[in-house]
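hi! just following up on the protien thing from before. the input was this:
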Amino acid sequence: MAKGETAEARARVFISCGQNKASDEVSIALGIRDRLQELGFDPYIAVQEQSLRGLKENIFEQLRESEYFVFVDFKRERLCGFSADSILAWCLRSLKPGNPVHRGSLFSHQELAIASYLDMPVLAFQELGVKRDDGILGFLQTNAIPFTDRNLLPNVIADEMQRRSWNPHWKNDLVIERNPAQRSDTRLVDIGKEAGFFHINVRNRHRRKIATNCYVYLEKAISVESGAEIPFKAVEFRWAGYDQPNAHVPPQKARPVDAFFILRDAPTRLLFNTFSTATDFVPRIEAAGQYELTYLVASDNFPIARASFTLSLDTSFDRTTLV
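and the predicted 3d structure came back as:
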């Protein structure tokens, strides 16, 4: 796969469930993962972290990047003691259908709270016997689906995801992509010279959310031959056919950006279409050779996206490529 080329989108599913190694919970979690992979999703099984750094780098990051959330509440300890009075009370309560006597998984409830804050689509499943509407479930309208047979759970979850039309072919992100043939030659009226414009695309892979106030930057420029980084200052790049530095990208759509352009009569000098009036805000690339250019896009409501492309700058106007 070429640099900047995007793989087929696979929606990420965060699987939050207990993984007590003394029971069958680990094998059930793996079964859920395998079943969701068969449906075309990209599942992640949350593993309990023991440090704040682990939480931030693994759990929080995976939650932020996931499109869907599956919550499985396995039974834990009973909520009553074992005195004579409490045993009698438990027996009386257990005669009432649906009356819970066990707590659920504390760690999974914490992850559910974060998923709710992130406004993720949630599917909740609760083992029969767990206290209903306990913890964060008491405040959310998740309508947890009860289950009794753990071995059937992977198929039960898969069936419910399909019933709710969860789509495995989208992502909650922006990507920068490049079609090697994406070049437009034109005559610059103001200077009367022929120029070749090379574009990159910013694609919004979300199924319904508009990416707002997107800004594109050249983050890094490196000479492949020498390995030297070319210095420059940060500046906003221009969107193709648009005169503002910030643009919105509709869901499932892409907008082109002017990556750079060259002139026919000076093909080894790279020119950049930016919102800068000073020359030190753009890198000076004025010799034939190979360069690695890394672009970055930032927006109000999506994670930062970046991609690197290889520029082969040639002495011939028609032989320069960006892949």
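Residues 25-38 form the longest helix (14 residues).
DSSP finds five helices and 15 strands in the chain.
cheers
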